[in-house]
Model the fold of this input.
Amino acid sequence: MSGGGTTLEDQLRDLAERVDDIAIRATREGVVEYITRNACQRLGVEQDEVIGQNVSELLHPDDRQRILSQLWESAEQSDGVRAEARLQRADGTWLRADVTGIAHVDSSGEKAVLIVGRDLSERAREEAMPHAGDEQMRLLADTVPAMLWMTSDDGHMLTVNRAAADFLGRDPADLTTDHMLSFYHHLEDQEKVRSRLEAAVERHEPFSVMTRVRNADGEYRRLLLRGKPRFDSDGEFLGLVGAAFDMTEIMVAKASQHRSERLATIGTLATGIAREIDNPLAAIRSAAEGAITSLDRVPNFRCMEQSLKRILTQVDRASKISRNLLHFAQSEPGEREIRDLNALVMEMVDQLRGNIRAAQASVECQLDPNLPHVPLARTEMVYVITNLLQNAVESSERPVHVSVRTELRGEQVLLTISDDGDGIPEDMLTRIFDPFFTTRRHGGGTGLGLSLVQRIMRDHEGTIEVQSTVDRGTSFILSLPTEPA
Done:
């Protein structure tokens, strides 16, 4: 009914079809009487699917009451009402539109509402172009092999370059934030990516997350998404701009390297296991034989009690060796997530309060309140902090003072655990990270704790250093990157 109509309604429809906007005519009851082909194309629907449907079905549930009340108010007024709404696409994603409701009376005198909407993602792309650069910069972005992306100030995807679109097998104009999250990110990663993105946009902070993304061939690849906030000349936040790096091969190679390193320690471990397990087993045998001998004579319950206690002590020692070996031989590091290192330190200090009191030690925490959150595998870092705190508390037969400090140095977060205990002799400092080497053999040490701590720090792309002076104390300095390498 476009082009040749003579009535006012025909002329309005013809005009609506020629404008690159969304146009819908609805009755006072909300029934859609007409929708332009352009609107159908943007929503991915056919005209006959929408006509006769209530307009509320096109609106996001959170927007319906607000938008409808404003639109119907416009039917009673001569002035139009303008609002921002989300319209549902056929694929389940949402199109953000700036809609205006205009009162309309047809030739029969019936009142209706003409809803005209502008696709905000299109407008945002157009407005972002001056900030993204001129045509040469856009050409450069589409030429480089790296996958680039840009969001608006509310986190919605404005544009991706050709490399990113080719990776996904879609046209750049079809890719929105909601669409990418719903259709391309692995189901288990969607909430993590969404929450990190929303936090970065809200705080105007850098964005970083590792996620699995389905490419054009249907294969999930591990991508590292990193972004930085962008601002205009007045300091106004415009959104995030960043890149996506395919880390799949790197992670596979890294895992292979970790396996090779662990295999290289098998010889050392085999020798150490034989020695360490033989010692408690020999003690258990001796204690058991002593208990049996005491039964052949007049029962000596005191002697039997001592033998059984020695057995239990050595069983606990063998069990501890076994547990540490399982940790050391773990094939894959835990999944890292952005965590509060200060909170983890305080949690471990609280858990060790009983051990600290038993050793008559004191612990002082000096934690940087502005310390950024860092990517950590919780289980592994709990082991690291607990092991170093326990070593510090037990660093002398006398009561010791332990200091725990965090600070930001450049792009590294430092955790320092110091004690004023007996210290470590210089000739032993080069060996303390060797498997089964310990300075506390008679105190129950297995010699695997610091080896495991060092391996965990390597898994986190971090480092561990030790400084010690005999009779003055020891400091362990852990360094962790603020973002994944």
In short: Residues 8-118 form a domain with the Beta-Lactamase fold (CATH 3.30.450.20).
